[in-house]
Amino acid sequence: MRLGFRTLFLSSAILCATAAFAEPPERLEIPFSFTVQSKSFPAGYYNIGLELQQGVITLANEADSTDRIIFIAGPADRTKHSAVATFDVVGTDHVLHSLQIGRRVSRDLSSPDRQQASFPVSIAAR
User: Fold this and answer.
1) Could you tell me how far CA 46 lies from the centroid of its own chain?
2) Is the pLDDT of residue 48 over 90?
3) H-type alpha helices, the chain
């Protein structure tokens, strides 16, 4: 019985530790510059990562590590793509609306006035 309890305890600890690791980042090519929360980002390749333990999604420019932003992640339905960035487009401006990776999504990031006069554009990981 002692061996069984130890095995069960160690198995549970390993499963919990594995569940807390971050998912590997997904790579997106965003072909236009965009803004989010009053910060401008250039066009380029971006990594979207999910850190389960902290419950956050990170968006980071591959070319410049200072171009990164972190969002609180909430639950979402799984999409057919591993990661999706959705933008609101007003004229020639692109504003990040949301980020989704796996079954986690950021809150709505766009301002109310942008939502009324915009159309959505989504970019998915390949």
Assistant:
1) 10
2) yes
3) 2-20, 112-116
